Amino acid sequence: MAVTVSPERDTVASPMQRALREAFYAGAIALGLFVLFIGLKTDQNMSNELVVVQRWGLLAAVVIATAVGRFLYVAYGQPFMANQKVANVTTGLMPASVASRFFTLPTFIGAAVAMVLLFVFNSSLAGWIGAEPAGYLQFLRALALIYVLACVIYYFRAFIHANFTKLGISALVLYPILVVAVLSLNAWSITGGLQGSLKWVDNFGIQILIYVMLAWGLNIVVGLAGLLDLGYVAFYALGAYAYALLATHFGLSFWILLPAAGAMAALWGVLLGFPVLRLRGDYLAIVTLAFGEIIRLVLINWREVTNGSAGISGIPKVSFFGLMTFNVSDPNYIAKVLNIATSSAYYKIFLYYLILGLCLLTAFVTIRLRRLPVGRAWEALREDEIACRSLGINTTTTKLTAFATGAMFGGFAGSFFAARQGFVSPESFVFLESAIILAIVVLGGMGSLVGIAVAAMVMIGGTEALRELDFLKQVFGPDFTPELYRMLLFGMAMVIVMLWKPRGFVGGREPTAFLKERRAVSGSFTKEGHG
User: Fold this and answer.
1) Where are the alpha helices (DSSP H) in 56-133?
2) Is 470 domain-assigned?
3) Quick check: is 233 in a domain?
4) DSSP state, 223?
């Protein structure tokens, strides 16, 4: 008697078998890739001898995480995305039915209560469970806060979507004030007082906004004009060194050197644009990559001017519009002039609002240029250069304006970076910086300002947050340094986003033709030659 297999059972078992098979393959590949990178570590002992440290537990954790992640993606992620495409879901990150189950009112209330308890009774809980597991409380606070914010966004998504620009700018303006006011309270005891709260303004707020401005500048070249630039960090370096050299040698103010640094970077953008006018695609990318490396090598070897690898130190701080300073020993120190308490928070908050203003200026100029003929010429060049020429568009000036405008914003960001750090060196402007900026543009969605800003927040903010996850040392051992794995997680996030949203976080955007206010075609309008 023949044994038959139910077709229903076969269809149910085959996806799981495929998921298990691919999980096994993924684990085997991870084992082969990381056995020498993670499993074995070379170190020096007390006798200054080279020894090999075995970390098989950490290697096993990485392999298991890779296999489990691949299994979950194949078994559940791929069917979910297939169903999402079939259902043609156009709003939200997930179907409404799934989102409504995940963001329920009871779980929202529970997460909010847990978050409040974890924040208010942080000291008591840390003392009760011991100092060692206190890092887990930090992680739980972050998870609860993220979930509560996600619930708020979900329940008020219609209102947020309708007033996104106003709400976003308001949140950015209030961010440093709220952070310093709330997190500096000793009762919360979670950030080490005022200095701990400034970390969230400097390492997160200012750092993210710098990359937002750089990515928006590169977006003009890559996203709008379609010119692949792998050496954008060169303009960043030129702006930084222009400010550093002129400020230290001639004592010029930041407010004079800021436009000068942008103009110098724009000039170099034009100089780069001329040799690459006839190049496209991979050849253009290679030339721009070489340009970035040439600038870095010049900064290293021109010791008489740039001080070589030692860099330039003692760069003056930014003044308060030339009226007051932030140096405590200066008679025009802002606290002395305004007769307020001395604090290091003033300078950090001022720097935050300064880079925020530069970012808003970049966004405003980009949006205005998109509405002008030059912006439409950029987008036409991106779509088809041959068609551009056939329509009479001057591709030479179009490319040069794209390079110059993008380089100018890179120069602005570089001058701000030099003033903020007080020190610049060639090691701050390596190719990896160009790769990160380009990755932010691609992940956010080329041509989308909002998507690029979201990508910068996720990628730069996420990698900076790894520095705060000290509890991972308790999981993977005391020698585990989370910040060293930032680029690994950055790459994994890129792969996940490209699988989930191939065109970036915000892949679709309104065409330039719709940015202008729609008007009815009247007789006078046609008479003017517009109809």
Assistant:
1) 56-72, 78-87, 96-102, 105-120, 122-129
2) yes
3) yes
4) I
What is the reported pTM?
0.75
Domain that holds residue 370: 166-507
* Token code pair at residue 253: 């103010």
The contacts of residue 107 (CB under 8 Å, 6+ apart) are 147, 151
Residue 341 tokens read as 């308490």
The amino acid present at 334, given as its one-letter code, is: I
How many independent structural domains does the chain possess?
1
- Per-residue pLDDT at 7: 47
Amino acid (1-letter code) at residue 440: I
Quick: pLDDT tens for 317-360.
888 887 887 777 777 777 777 877 777 778 888 899 999 999 99
Report how far apart, in Å, the C-alpha atoms of 287 and of each of 278, 294, 411, 433 are: 12, 10, 20, 17
- Taking every pair of Cα atoms in the chain, the longest distance, rounded to a whole number of angstroms, is 102
Burial (CB count <10 Å: 0-12, 13-18, 19+), residue 353: middle
Taking the CA atoms of residue 264, residue 265, residue 271 and residue 275 in that order, the dihedral angle to the nearest 10 degrees is 170
Distances 477 to 50, 56, 60, 88, 261 between C-alpha atoms, Å: 21, 11, 13, 46, 46
Q: What angle do CA 457, 463, 466 make, to 5 degrees?
A: 125
CATH number where 430 lies? 1.10.3470
Is 63 inside a domain boundary? no
C-alpha distance from residue 84 to each of 87, 140, 428, 508 (Å) = 5, 31, 42, 17
Position 159 in a domain = no
Torsion sign (Cα): 489, 491, 497, 500:
negative
Structure tokens at 463: 């990698």
Mean pLDDT for the chain overall: 77
CB 393 within 8 A of CB 377: yes
In the structure encoding, which two tokens stand for residue 492, read together? Answer: 């994994």
* pLDDT grade for 239, boundaries at 50, 70 and 90: very high
